Amino acid sequence: MLRIFVSFFLVVIMSKSIVFADSIGIYTHRQPFLLEPILQAYTEKTGIEFETVYAPQGLATRIETEGNNTKADLVLTVDVSRIKELADTNLLAPLQSNIINQNVPSHLRDGDDTWTALSLRARIIAVSKERVGQEAISSIEELATPKWKGRVCSRRGSHVYNRAVLASLIAHNGFEEAKKWALGFVDNLARRPQGNDRAQAKAIFTGECDVALMNTYYFGKMKHSKDHPEQREWANAMEIAFINQNGRGQHMNISAAGILKGSKNKQRAREFLEWLTSKEAQTIYTEVNFEYPVNPNASYSEEVASWGMFKMDALPMNTIAELSPDAQKIINEIGW
Q: Within this chain, do residues 329 and 204 fall inside the same structural domain, yes or no?
């Protein structure tokens, strides 16, 4: 009887191990509609399933609390500051992948090899097609000039997307100049900061403002929305203005990923990240999510390519993350 019990116990343990080995646990800030097409493609390709927890806030605290008991193998974030927060709290394992290093340029990877970018998005200036036109503005610095008084819309400054923009201005122009810019920008707002990037597009459509900061993939999602025809109207009312083309180039941010130190399945997680940076997966990012590939060998989708080619700012992502606390100080002080 004891022998039967032990045999049964071992079968249960082995079967559980097999299930665990054939799955990858993910914690992520990314919205499900941006991530699920990519996970589905990998499952169809390999048979590997995913256990995914979507959590816009509190992931660092959760991972730190779980430690080696975490069920997650990977964390996927929506910007560089959040992945660096995990690296700085010693929660990420080294990637140790020559494939990732070959696929992703060095300024889009952590210098200590704990994370890599997976996709790029440009935080452009969305302009009213009717009242402004994309030729009317050439740099983000111009948004702080009197010309745009009462014509600018924005989500909260403390949102990671806007904080990264301000961090890049600190890197290029210095703290005091960035603060002056932020004061001028806030003084030009047509309304109090509110909503997400789609809300800024709607405000341009209704005439509440003429220009706004926006990530490019929102433009693509709205333009091709099947469930929300009104969003197609918002997109059709605006144009994309790529900025700082005569200088440093267009500000960029990233989605990023790292392997958790507490992962029990690091090799499988590493293989998945290697695939995510491959031409095959990068094509999904640009065709489905309307993002820009981090792999220079991957092509843009027809829609993304139609927006035009532009010069990207090559500022290291680590620099943006390191200056984000200084950016937040400015945001708090001026009330953006």
A: yes
Tokens of 196: 């997400």
Same domain, 317 and 196: yes
Per-residue DSSP letter, 178:
H
Residue 236 neighbours by CB under 8 Å, 6+ apart: 129, 223
In whole angstroms, what is the distance from residue 107 CA to residue 96 CA?
17
For residue 311, the Cα-to-chain-centroid distance in whole angstroms is 19
Cβ neighbors of 224 (< 8 A, separation 6 or more) are: 232, 303
Tokens of 151: 């014509």
- Domain that includes residue 260, residue range: 11-120+253-306
Find, among 53, 65, 49, the residue nearest to 27 by Cα.
53
Exposed, middle or buried, 227 (CB in 10 Å: 0-12/13-18/19+)?
Answer: exposed
Phi-psi region of 268 (alpha: psi -120 to 50; beta: other; left: phi over 0): alpha
Domain count, the chain: 2
Q: What angle do CA 151, 153, 155 make, to 5 degrees?
A: 165
pTM of the model: 0.87
Q: How far apart are CA 250 and CA 241, in angstroms?
A: 10
Report pLDDT digits (tens) over 22-55: 799 999 987 777 788 899 999 999 999 999 998 8
Q: Are residues 245 and 319 in the same domain?
A: yes
